[in-house]
Amino acid sequence: MNEEEKKEEDIEGLAVIETYGCQMNEHDSEKLAGVLKEKGYKLIEDTEKADVIILNTCCIRENAEVKVHGKIGYLKQYKRENPDLIIGICGCMMQQEGMAEKIKDKHPHVDIVFGTHNIHEFSQLLDAAEEESETIIDIWGEKEELIPDLPTRRETDHKAWVTIIYGCNNFCTYCIVPYVRGREKSRSSIDIVDEIKELADDGVKEVTLLGQNVNSYGYDLDRKIDFADLLEELDQIEGIERIRYMTSHPRDFTTKLIKTIADSNKVCEHFHLPIQSGSSRILEKMNRGYTQEEYLALVEEIRSYIPQAAITTDFIVGFPGERDEDFAETLKLVEEVEFDMAYTFKYSQRSGTPAAEMEGQIEEDVKQKRLQKLMDIQSDISAQKNKKLLGKTVKVLGDGESKNNPERQTGRTRTNKIVVFNSDKDLTGKLINVKINKASSWTLTGDLVK
Ligand code: 5AD
Ligand code: SF4
After folding, report:
1. Both ends of the chain: CA-CA distance in Å?
2. What is the domain-level CATH number for residue 423?
3. pLDDT of residue 34
4. Is there an atom of ligand 1 within 6 Å of 319 CB?
5. Which residues form the domain of 288?
């Protein structure tokens, strides 16, 4: 964008943020967007037209990193055409040892590199990049205090993410998160309640509480409060219709928490409980802190209090040392639990994690075959579960136009299932009833009930 165009639109320039990875990163990107907006930038999608491009990266699996490296290389041509373009790379991948220097050496066209612990410095870094031609690297190690609040620019008006706890203390042996996001740090419940009240005043209907392990909420605070207590408090906030949370650890899911959710009005009946493997032997090697039997008992307990609960999960196949018998246990468990949905991943070796050094790393073709088998079985189960809703009327919170089919609208049930329906009115943020007439593994389709 040239100076004249900027003046005409009365903006500083055009900016793109590309986000990789989980909701935590998406939420960080909302903060980056807030900073850009305050500085007068207009956010767009098209990297070709941008004056500032920020990549917020993920490193949970190798393919996430490969994508980012590819994208940075691709951006080089834009920088050649427009030397004033500012390219910034941030997020989890940058917190890995040596990564920032590697980016600087390999991709000198990058202007700023920063990490997850100092996104509040983004504004100053942008200013500095305008003056400096060399890559500016500013990565912080972990600090005691929490990241200061930043202005947020949300993608949607009716839904919002709210971080309740940062970091993770679990050290599952495959996982890089505790190394790049640091130790658990809970936000004060007063701040959380205030933030959600403000969101409610702004018209937000649904909040999703974020944390790597939300069940650990409050353990590090002076004031005695745990996740169940927090949910109970949040349930009282007027204007909010739905409360969700991500992600919870099966080991820390207490009876008190299940009862609190069962008694609440707003906390949704959706339990995302990553199991990772159905084999207790592998679970132990993963340092998950529960056995297959304990997980099954938890599912039973949840269903005894909340029969209509949807239960979803994550699986990793091909963890080091996973034998055919272990994988068979996973398949058996999948059939037994009947998850509503599962995210399935091939184990990815992350350097610096204990599992990366373990013996018995599994060949790629074995991982691929196991993944396919698991996905096929789960997909049938998801379809069967969704078919049970045929002919039923479900409460849906409208999310607006369907991305794949702009003629139609989408929304979600409290159990987090996607529902597609026809409407001539925009029903974003509205609670509506939809009668389901078609069900597949991923979506439900239905008609509005007046
Ligand atoms: N390889 C594959 N999947 C992983 N996950 C975390 N680390 C790895 C890894 N090294 C998956 C887990 C987790 C989800 C967010 O990502 O299933 O629950
Ligand atoms: Fe990673 Fe385990 Fe922490 Fe989840 S609980 S972020 S899988 S270490």
Report:
1. 48
2. 2.40.50
3. 95
4. no
5. 159-387
